[in-house]
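Morning. Coffee machine broken again, so started the prediction first thing and wrote up yesterday's gels while waiting. Chain of 194 residues, entered below exactly as on the submission form.
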Amino acid sequence: MKHLPNLLTYLRLMLIPVFVVLMLDPSRAMVIAAVVVFIVAALTDSLDGMIARRYGLTSEIGKLLDPVADKLLVMSALVMLVAQRSDLDARAWVPGWMVVLVLGREIWVTGLRAVAAAQGKIVAANAAGKVKSFLQMVAIVLLLLHDAPFPFLRKSVSCQVVGLYLLLISIVVSYWGAIEYSYLILGSQRRKSP
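Came back before lunch.
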């Protein structure tokens, strides 16, 4: 039981290549299978954190691996979504600039975590990071179901439209969290320097 949260994180890491292989063939059946794999992987994220907190099974390796697994899952999905093209207008399912913003933020925060680790601290995800992760996971599922109808205010829009708006909101939240991380880590380092 004490290793269950980390085992769930390892499972999430192992599901990433399965998801990528499924997305190589964007037929309806393969995309639906990819959606199922992605949802299972995303659920392991919620489950491992819940189990770790509830039973006091948090570990330093878990604090380090969990956000890395999340980043790899999200970035793999977004890169595969950029590679997919609409049958109607040949546009990417997700614009590349959004993925660049997500990637840039993740690289920055990973760098900040490395600075903190060099100081002997492991920084767990903050509230903004958790909200960002949830929004990204939901957005990605909707983006995978891109052409399916989504009921909205007595109208129907595509899942892609809703997914893109959620992804944009997640980017705003993620940059807010990155500012908090920057202040926490770089601010404490500045206070320590002579």
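The longest strand covers residues 149-152. Going to sketch it on the whiteboard this afternoon.
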